[in-house]
Design a protein that fits this description.
Length: about 950
């Protein structure tokens, strides 16, 4: 104990030395950086004076010149001159910014070099200085060199000398765009948008030029409606119109039904005709409502505009038809905004007689008859009657009405830019987007310099050799592999020696080595050699700090990665809880179970986001998990009716487990609806937005149910067995995983049914061999040395591991760190369960606890089923000469006892026991022999 303390004191001392050095260096860099930033900033303003002072210009004694203007003194001025004037010019300030950043990163334990922000700054530094060098060379004499500094100027000259100014422009533009994209990926969207706008504007420019220059009339610029919509939240229906000269008034007006535009019959005075074919062929819509016949006059663009002032901003345009315009309006000058709005016009077919000078509208033209959507299309053809297509305008032929006012209201339905419509995948982490996983610095690094000496290895090897020799077993070779707490001696025996002979000498070898915890592995799977594990004299502590930092864990791609400790080969042991898919943890009291559970929970907290994982914690001992109550709203799940998220009352544990069964059923039916085979596929579909939340689909977090002291629980509430079994059998596919811990590895607690569904089991040290058999179906756990020494059995494969130590203060720090962050408003809600709401479950519990009178052939049939690996009712009938009813009854009893699985369609039933010793234990438990 004392030696462990002194070791950990030593370890903390070494660690704190490293910490101090880090702090000192980080702070030095930080302050130096800040000082340099200040120096450069002041230098920007005082460079003339500072330069003269530094170089003794105008002074007789340059070294003692005290006329430095820079408040950071001679050192500041000199460094600033080096960075600015002599190196990078205006961008010289980036260097001290990088230094400051590096200082801060060292203090925050972040990687210093090759980090994104540092690299980005370097790119900006080089490109900035080069750009200024190319653009200004040494012009203006800034900083006594130029805007880009001496380096920038030189680099600029070199570049422009080789590729010329055009090449420089292209290289720099490309460089800045790439840098922008490197700094922030979204920048690519900005570039895209800028490109679109550029293309669009140039299109408009060509249009305007074409319209201004008559010879270019034929180059009519047309812009498709979709583009217009894309570019801005454009008016949906009324946006673009077309005015075409047409033959004299056609009496037929065609109505476009989908347009909601009310025009009073008064507008019938307009001689408008709609050429439906044109409209269909052409993406551009025709303009005004009710246009009066033009008698010999010339209507110009200016006139039209002057008489139809409609503001840009007003989405509801009001046009007055048939109302007399004030005379002055005819002669009114072209509104100043005309020039700007021309850009908006899309297709203009200009007639020869167009008068650009702005002639007045003839007096006999009914005022206002040419009302139109001025914003959209102010151009009208002047010298000809023209066809006007306007949606929905019942342009009946007839005389122009007098004094009747028609108000046309058009609603411009805003459209969203197509590119802004989100097609992103659903991000479950978005709710707590700022959530930060706990820092590894919250864990203690139990550095330990206790090593297995060569002396110790030699001694052990000699004793093993001697002992075996005494029993007449010669050996060829011994290889030692040192682990944190145990050293493995691999023995290659001489040819012809049976492995079982060495196995039988296990106790003799242990006695000879005078050490507890000898475990013989004969043969080592996959090697054919014999292994003897001998505990080290000085045992190392495997810290959770080193386990979490391990590459294996950090790079684990598992759904629920857990790093539990280190193997005998000193490798970190990482497994995926989702694949286990449930875990049984057992061991005598004080052997490291609670530490093991904390290591599992901590691993998951280090890897998962609160959106991805929830825990249900059941703790009849009341003290083990109370620490985690603080992260209720981040990581815990409970029924809404429950007050506490950590369940300590056995009855409530039964309700919660039954509630988890309901959650499991709900999830199974969601998966079925979605056509997903498991939670991973389901969540993939959901995040790809292929499942409709309105149909009840939701993102499903994993749920890890941790039950400490399962023995206590099952003793006080036998009903827990029912839901636990159901969850163990079916919940794996929908992301509900169980971890059950017990210090009483009793067949009454670890029943056959539980064992059958928990292929992954952890055994800490137990007191008797039978307990080891109960847990891992073989001896070995009774020979462990305690304090986290454990055997991990996964589907029959056994690995000895030293569990990582995570102490209570470490857990407290992690929980504190998480609890201080933004959380959900409540714990994850599990469906409410009360005995009334789910009577079936309670009934199941009581039913399973009722005494059953087993058939006299029950045990025999069970044994045969396990050894043959198959069973069916007809087989029972045939082989045991029993009738159909009796065979069916026996099968039902086997199923209820958890020896065989349920009937699923035509498939043969699963045999849930795979070896006879565990079946015997079960039969014993049932009282059948
Ligand atoms: N992995 C480990 N490394 C070093 N020491 C350990 C480790 N695990 C446990 N210990 C030591 O053993 C002590 C008991 O461990 P723990 O509380 O986990 O036992 P337990 O099996 O949960 O006991 P109980 O069932 O009574 O709660 C710890 O306080 C610690 O000192």
């Amino acid at each position: 104990m004392a030696s462990t303390q002194s070791k950990s004191a030593k370890a903390s001392a070494t660690r704190s030395d490293g910490e101090s050095a880090r702090w000192i260096f980080g702070l030095l860099l930080l302050f130096a950086g800040i000082f340099l930033v200040a120096s450069v900033v002041f230098y920007y303003f005082d460079w003339r004076g500072d330069y003269s002072a530094l170089h003794g210009i105008g002074s007789e004694n340059p070294n003692f010149d005290d006329s430095i203007d820079n408040p950071c003194g001679r050192l500041g001025a000199w460094t600033a001159e080096m960075l600015v004037g002599r190196s990078f010019g205006l961008f010289g300030i980036v260097v001290p910014i990088i230094v400051t950043m590096m200082g801060a990163r060292i203090l925050r334990r972040r990687p210093v070099l090759f980090h994104h922000s540092v690299l980005s700054s370097l790119l900006v530094l080089i490109l900035g200085s080069l750009t200024l060098g190319v653009a200004f060379d040494d012009g203006w004499g800034m900083f006594n060199s130029g805007w880009g500094g001496a380096c920038g100027i030189e680099m600029g000259r070199l570049l422009s000398g080789s590729i010329g100014m055009v090449g420089c422009f292209i290289v720099l533009l490309g460089g800045w765009i790439l840098t922008g994209v490197f700094i922030n990926r979204n920048f690519i969207n900005t570039v895209n948008r800028a490109g679109n706008v550029l293309v669009d504007k140039s299109g408009k420019l060509v249009g305007t030029v074409a319209q201004k220059v008559p010879s270019l009339q034929s180059l009519v610029v047309s812009r498709p409606r979709e583009e217009e919509d894309d570019e801005q939240a454009a008016p949906a229906e009324s946006g673009v119109r077309e005015v075409r000269p047409t033959p004299p008034p056609a009496p037929v007006a065609e109505e476009e039904p989908q347009r909601e535009r009310a025009v009073s019959p008064a507008a019938g005075g307009a001689q408008a005709a709609v050429a439906a074919d044109d409209e269909e062929d052409d993406p551009f819509v025709v303009h005004p409502v009710g246009v009066a016949p033009v008698s010999g006059g010339v209507q110009t663009v200016n006139d039209y505009y002057a008489r139809n002032r409609v503001t840009d901003d007003d989405p509801f345009e009001e046009h007055t038809l048939g109302a007399e315009e004030p005379e002055g309006a005819d002669a009114a000058p072209l509104p100043s905004r005309l020039a700007g709005e021309e850009d908006e016009f899309v297709e203009i077919d200009l007639s020869d007689g167009m008068d650009d000078t702005g002639g007045a509208v003839p007096a006999d033209t009914p005022a206002g008859a040419e009302d139109a959507d001025a914003e959209e299309n102010p151009f009208l053809d002047d010298d000809e009657p023209f066809t006007v297509k306007d949606a929905g305008a019942p342009a009946a032929a007839g005389d122009a009405p007098e004094g009747v006012v028609v108000t046309v209201e058009e609603h411009h339905d805003a459209l969203v830019d197509e590119h802004r419509i989100t097609t992103e995948a659903y991000d479950p982490l978005k709710d707590l987007v700022n959530y930060r996983r706990p820092s590894v610095a919250l864990l203690e690094d139990y550095l330990s310099d206790s090593e297995v000496t060569d002396e110790e290895i030699y001694e052990n090897k000699s004793r093993i050799e001697e002992t075996l020799k005494n029993f007449g077993i010669p050996i060829q070779r011994i290889k030692a592999t040192t682990g944190p707490t145990v050293t493995l001696y691999e023995i290659v025996q001489a040819q012809g020696v049976k492995i079982s002979r060495i196995q039988n000498l296990q106790n003799d070898i242990a006695q000879s080595l005078k050490a507890l915890g000898i475990r013989i592995i004969a043969p080592i799977p996959g090697k054919g050699t014999i292994g003897i594990e001998v505990p080290n004299r000085n045992k190392q502590i495997v810290s959770m700090y080193s386990a979490v930092r391990s590459m294996k864990f950090q790079e684990a791609k598992a759904e629920l990665p857990v790093v539990i400790g280190r193997t005998i080969q000193n490798e970190n042991y990482v497994f995926d809880l989702a694949k286990m898919p449930h875990l049984l943890v057992a061991g005598a009291t004080g052997q490291g179970k609670s530490v093991g559970l904390n290591a599992i929970i901590t691993s998951l907290l280090y890897k998962k986001h609160p959106a991805q994982l929830k825990f249900v914690m059941i703790d009849p001992k009341m003290v083990e998990f109370s620490l985690y109550a603080k992260i209720e709203r981040h990581f815990l799940a409970k029924m809404e009716s429950e007050e506490e998220a950590i369940i300590t009352d056995p009855r409530k544990a039964v309700y919660t487990l039954n509630s988890l069964c309901i959650e499991m059923e709900n999830r199974l039916s969601l998966c079925k609806d979605a056509g997903a085979r498991n939670i991973k596929e389901y969540n993939e579909k959901f995040t790809a937005r292929r499942l409709n939340p309105l149909k009840g689909h939701r993102y499903l977090p994993y749920i890890v149910v941790v039950v400490d002291e399962f023995a206590d629980l099952i003793m006080t509430a036998k009903e827990v067995e029912g839901p636990v079994m159901r969850l163990a059998q079916k919940a794996r596919a929908v992301g509900i995983h169980l971890i059950i811990a017990t210090q009483r590895p009793d067949v009454k607690v670890i029943t056959g049914g539980i064992k059958a569904n928990f292929p992954a089991r952890i055994a800490f040290r137990v007191m008797q061999m039978i307990d080891s058999r109960t847990i891992i179906d073989r001896p070995g756990a009774e020979q462990l040395i305690g304090r986290g020494d454990m055997l991990f059995s996964n589907n029959g494969e056994l690995t000895r591991i030293q569990c990582a130590l995570v102490d209570t203060p470490e857990v407290e720090r992690i929980v504190e760190y998480i609890s201080k962050q933004q959380s959900y408003t409540s714990a994850y809600n599990l469906p409410d369960y009360t005995p009334d709401s789910g009577g079936g479950e309670a009934a199941l519990g009581s039913e399973s606890s009722a005494p059953v009178k087993y058939d006299s052939k029950f045990a025999e049939i069970a044994r045969d089923a396990v050894s043959q690996g198959q069973i069916s009712t007809s087989m029972i009938q045939r082989n045991y000469e029993v009738g159909f009813n009796r065979a069916g009854r026996i099968m039902m009893q086997l199923e209820r006892a958890g020896i065989v699985g349920r009937q699923e369609g035509a498939k043969p039933r699963d045999i849930l026991y795979h070896d006879l010793p565990s079946l015997e234990a079960k039969l014993q438990e049932l009282g059948v022999f």
